[in-house]
Amino acid sequence: MTGPGGPPDGSAESVYAQPGTGARLDWGLAGAAELSRVCAVLVVVDVLSFTTSVEVAVARGMRVHPFPWGAQAAEYATRVGAVAAVGRRAVTSAHPWSLSPAALHAAPVVPELVLPSPNGSAISAAASATGLPVVAACLRNARAVGRWLLAQGYGSTAAPIGVVAAGERWPDDSLRPAVEDQLGAAAVLDVLAAAPGELSVEAAVALAALNSLPSVPAAVRGSVSGRELVNRGFGQDVEIAVQVDVSEVVPVLRGGVYSPA
Q: pLDDT per residue over 41-73, tens digit each?
C-alpha cells in the first residue's frame, strides 16, 4: 500500500510510513498495513479489550489465536482444536470464555483459545500474514513490551517499530480513534523513546498526551469506551485493563498464535 504522499515508482518510503524514525504510530487496519510494509516489528494495542485479554490469557498459560469477528470463529476453532471465545453476553457456565479480561481471568485454562474481535484481533490476523513479528501490548504490560523490543534490537531507522492503536468502530464501520488505545500505545512509546531512532511526530504527540495526564487509569475509566463497558455491566473489564505495568508477559504472534516471548 502506498498512500497519496508516496512516490509513484516506489523508489522511496511513503511519507505515510513516517520515514527516518525508529518508532512510529498509526491507527487501525489501514495504518497497520502501511507500517507493515516498512517496519521490522508491529505492536498491536487494543486496551478495551483484545490485547488486555491476550495478556491475561497468555499469562495463565493459554495460546491465543486471533481471528476476525464473525460466525466462522467456532468453525476455525474446531479445525485447530481450540475453544472459541464468544461475546460477553453469550457467556454461560458451560462456556465461560469471551472477549473479556475478567471472564478470562476466572475461566478454566484451555491450551488453545480462539479470540475474535473486530479491531485488535482482526489487525493481528492480518499482520500475521505479512510474516512480521507481532506483539500484543496493553497498559498491563506496556513497559515489559518496550523493554523486550529494545532488547531484541528494534527501534533504529534500519529496524523500526510500528505501534498500531486499534481504535474502535462507528456504526458505519469507520474508525473511531480511542483514548485508551492512544494511551496504551504511548505507554509503550515511553520506553521506546530510548531507542536509537527517534520517535515519529505522531508517536511523540501521543507520548506528550500521556505525560500530560495526572492519572491514566482515570482517563481510561472516563473515556467513551470505558464508560460504555461500565454502562453495559462490564466495569471489571475496565478495572483489569487500567492496571498499569503489572505484567512482565510479552505475547508474540508466531505461526498465527500468541504465546510468551
A: 999 999 999 999 999 999 999 999 999 887 688
- The Cα–Cα gap between 175 and 49 comes to 16
Q: How many other CB atoms are found less than 10 A from the CB of residue 59?
A: 18
Dihedral pair phi/psi, residue 110, rounded to 5°: -120, 150
CA nearest neighbour of 24 among 35, 13, 10: 35
Q: Are 133 and 42 in contact (CB under 8 A)?
A: yes
C-alpha cell at 150: 529494545
Written as nine digits, the cell of 219 is 482517563
User: Is residue 118 a contact partner of residue 125, using CB atoms and an 8 Å limit?
Assistant: no
In whole angstroms, what is the distance from residue 69 CA to residue 92 CA?
19
Query: Coil, helix or strand for 108?
Result: coil
Bond from prior residue into 49 cis (ω within 30 degrees of 0): yes
- Among 207, 202, 159, smallest CA distance to 25 is for 202
